[in-house]
Amino acid sequence: MKTKKRIIAITLMLALILAGCGQEADHTSSDTAAQNSESIVQENENSVQAETAEGENDESAEVPKSGNDETAENVSVSDATGSIVYMTTDISPEGLRAVYEALGWTPFGNVAVKLSTGEPPASNYLRPELIADLVQSVEGTIVECNTAYGGSRAETAMHYQVAEDHGFTAIADFQIQDEEGSMALPVEGGTRLTENYVGAAFADYDSYLILSHFKGHAMAGFGGAIKNISIGLGSSEGKSWIHSGGTSLTSPWGGEQDAFLESMAEAGKSVSDYLGNGEYIVYINVMNRLSVDCDCDGNPAEPDMHDIGILASVDPVALDQACIDLIYEQKDGDGASLVSRIESRNGLHTLEHAEEIGLGSRTYELVMVDE
Questions:
Q1: How many other C-beta atoms can be found within 10 angstroms of the C-beta atom of residue 233?
Q2: Any bridge partners for residue 39, and if so which?
Q3: Distance CA 262, CA 271 (A)
Q4: 220 with 234: CB under 8 angstroms?
Q5: Largest CA distance in the chain
Q6: Does the pLDDT value for residue 54 go beyond 50?
Q7: How far is CA 310 from its chain centroid?
Q8: Residue 263: CB partners within 8 Å, gap ≥ 6?
Q9: Nearest to 230 by CA among 179, 192, 204
Q10: What is the DSSP secondary-structure string of 76-116?
């Protein structure tokens, strides 16, 4: 899949928005960032479902349409240009703060920071030294849910121990959200799910900062923001519910692949809808240690491509699509194995379905925040 890029002036972008919508974009912080940054409009070609691990791309695919009226509140600029995704190549605490601050988002109330604690002994979870400053600046509580597939994080007591061993309890308060069971969120507009099951403590928090390590995944093809708010925020039984396409609360195994991918998108939308239609949640993806395997794998394959950067958006679909496009730019070199993993699992279908149901837009503008 090749990515089309156009570089346009911010004045032209504003002119289009004013002409098309009769008003400026809601997120005025993006205007400030864009005055100091080069704006790259990514108009992504429709991704093709791969038939094999070496599945080929259809270069004649049409450019995907931007989000419709139902998703307007979930994107950061008008449909003329899609959602804004901020990026830095500085993978450091300072770089993480820079992309977060570019969002112009202020959390309120009780703040949850969702991340993966990582399966022992050697997974590529986000290190505490990278995220500590940001987590503490928002006075966040780090939250997680137990797994549904065994391992060191399937039971609450063991999971708390992993969080301590991996250094998370040393930088912030920490909570396993499903230690007291599940709560159900309604799924609006889904084709697979009518309910999504998250941890019972999910509603104890008013704002959510989603910190995701972008990487491959053995079942989903890739893991980013959408996976983190669906499988990641799912309780143990909720994880089984998503994996099985809404047919089992007790087993994550044996579900149909596209049903699983579509259920992830639908579960993610239920979370966004619950949080003020996306108003009280933002997303950051860190593109380092880009293994083909997930952080749920305690012994993942060693990455065979270079680190890329940190990206952030209020739109999880645009954010994950931007990360995918950056991976595809490397597909003829050191990104080939990750591209192969994504296509062999039909992973891009998650983004297709997420856009269809109104979680966000696959059309986006990439704004660099590096000075």
A1: 29
A2: 367
A3: 15
A4: no
A5: 57
A6: no
A7: 12
A8: 192, 193, 230, 241, 242, 243, 245, 246
A9: 192
A10: SS-TTT-EEEEEES--SHHHHHHHHHHTT----SSEEEE--
User: Which tens digits make up the pLDDT trace of 246-288?
Assistant: 999 999 999 999 999 999 999 999 999 999 999 999 999 999 9
CA–CA distance, 55 with 89 (Å, rounded to integer): 30
Contact (CB, 8 A) for 236 and 178:
yes
At 221, which amino acid appears? G
The C-alpha atoms of residue 361 and residue 66 are separated, in whole angstroms, by 6
Task: Please give the pLDDT value at position 67.
Answer: 31
Q: Contact at 8 Å (CB) between 29 and 104?
A: yes
How many residues in the chain?
371
pLDDT digits (tens, 9 = 90+) for 133-157: 999 999 999 999 999 988 999 999 9
Tokens 């703060």 — which residue?
97
Token pair of 127 as six digits: 């290190």
Q: For residue 84, what are the β-bridge partners? A: 365
Q: What is the DSSP string of 153-170?
A: TSSHHHHHHHHHHTTSTT
